[in-house]
Specification:
The chain has twelve helices and nine strands. With 289 residues, the chain is of the alpha/beta class. The protein has two domains: 126 residues, NAD(P)-binding Rossmann-like Domain (Rossmann fold, 3-Layer(aba) Sandwich); 109 residues, UDP-galactose 4-epimerase, domain 1. The protein is globular, with a radius of gyration of 19 Å. The protein binds NADP nicotinamide-adenine-dinucleotide phosphate.
Length: 289
C-alpha cells in the first residue's frame, strides 16, 4: 500500500505524513509549493493542475484528502483530481472534513462527502472540530505582538481539537479497515470560550493575553488589514459567528473511541506550541481594531 498525503505541509497533513513514516507505512507527500529541502518522497501536486496528477497518483492505493482553504468551488477544482485518483487505482480516501458538514450544505466539505459516498471508493470522513493550532498559526502574531485574540465569537464555546489528534484518527482510517464508510468527529474533551483560551495561553506564557470579542464588521476590517484574502475572511467570519451561537461546542468521545486515549488538552497544546507566541524580531503586527 502507498498513501498519497495531500496538504502534506498543512496543519493536519504534516502530522499524517509523520505518523505514517513512523509506522513504516509507505507514504508520498503531495506538496503544492515544493521547498528546496523537500524530500525525495515528495511530489509536486495541485488539485487544480492536471499536469501534476499522474506523477503524484501513480501506484497510490489510499489518499488523505484535504480541501485547501483557498478552494471553495470543489466541483470544478477538486472533484476532477479525485476522479483521476480513482482512475489511477486509489481505492480509499480519508477526507479531512468539518464538524457538522453533513448538516450544512453551504460548506464545500458537504459536496465532497456526497461525492465520496457515491464514488464506489472506501471512504472515511474525519469531521474535525476547530483546531487548537489556529491559535498558534492564524492568531499567533496578534497574541505575540499585542497580547490579544480578536475573533467575533462572543461568549460562545468551541470544542477545540489538537491537529495531532485529528491526524492520528486519519492515520487509523488509512491503515485499518474499522473506519471504512464511517464518519468520526474528533473534538477535545471540553468546549472552551475564547476568554478561557486566552487565560490558558496567558498561564503558559506567564504574560497577559486577553480576548476581544469584535463585531463582524470590525473583524472584517481587522483581518483584511492583515492581508487575509477576501474569501478566507468571509469563511472565518461565518465560522466564528457559528461559534458565537455555540454551534461548534459539541464534544464527542471519538478520539478516545478510535485511539484508546484521551484527546490532547488545550494546556498541553499551549505548552507544546508556546514558541509560536514568543517575541521574535520582525515587523510589529498592525493594530486595526
Ligand atoms: N482550521 C480549522 O480549525 C479546521 C477545522 C476543521 C476542518 N478544517 C478543514 O481542514 C482543511 C485544511 O485547512 P487548514 O486551514 O488546516 O489548512 P492547512 O492544511 O494548514 O493548509 C492548506 C494546505 O493546502 C495546500 N494547498 C493549497 N493549495 C493547494 C492546491 N491547489 N492543491 C493542493 N494543495 C494545496 C497548502 O500547500 P502550500 O502551503 O504549499 O500552498 C497547505 O499544505 C480545510 O478544508 C478546512 O476547512 C479546518
Amino acid at each position: 500500500m502507498t498513501v498519497l498525503v495531500t496538504g502534506a505541509t498543512g496543519r493536519v497533513g504534516r502530522h499524517v505524513l509523520q505518523e505514517l513514516n513512523e509506522r513504516g507505512v509507505p507514504a508520498r507527500a503531495a506538496v503544492h509549493r515544493p521547498a528546496p529541502d523537500t524530500t525525495a518522497r515528495a511530489v509536486s501536486f495541485s488539485f487544480t493542475d492536471p499536469r501534476t496528477w499522474r506523477e503524484a497518483m501513480r501506484g497510490a492505493t489510499s489518499m488523505f484528502v484535504m480541501r485547501p482553504p483557498q478552494i471553495s468551488r470543489v466541483k470544478e477544482d477538486m472533484l476532477p483530481a479525485l476522479s483521476a485518483a480513482r482512475e489511477y487505482g486509489v481505492k480509499r480516501m480519508v477526507l479531512l472534513s468539518l464538524q457538522g458538514a453533513d448538516r450544512n450544505p453551504a460548506v464545500p466539505h458537504h459536496t465532497l462527502e456526497n461525492w465520496l459516498r457515491a464514488s464506489g471508493l472506501e471512504w472515511t470522513f474525519v469531521r474535525a472540530g476547530f483546531f487548537m493550532q489556529n491559535l498558534s498559526t492564524t492568531h499567533a502574531a496578534e497574541i505575540r505582538d499585542l497580547g490579544r485574540i480578536v475573533v467575533p465569537a462572543g461568549g460562545g464555546r468551541t470544542s477545540f481539537v489538537d491537529a495531532r489528534d485529528v491526524a492520528a484518527v486519519a492515520v487509523r482510517a488509512l491503515t485499518d479497515d474499522t473506519l471504512v464508510r464511517e464518519a468520526v468527529t474528533p473534538t477535545g474533551v471540553t468546549a472552551l470560550t475564547y476568554t478561557e483560551v486566552a487565560e490558558l495561553i496567558s498561564t503558559e506564557l506567564g504574560a497577559p493575553v486577553s480576548y476581544i470579542s469584535s463585531g463582524p464588521l470590525a473583524f472584517w476590517r481587522h483581518r483584511r488589514a492583515q492581508g487575509t484574502p477576501h474569501a478566507e475572511t468571509a469563511v472565518m467570519l461565518a465560522l466564528y459567528s457559528a461559534c458565537r451561537f455555540n454551534l461548534a461546542a459539541g464534544v464527542t468521545h471519538d478520539v478516545r473511541t478510535v485511539l484508546g486515549r484521551d484527546p490532547i488538552s488545550f494546556s498541553r497544546f499551549a505548552h507544546d506550541e508556546r514558541a509560536a507566541w514568543l517575541p521574535r524580531p520582525h515587523q510589529p503586527f498592525r493594530n486595526q481594531v
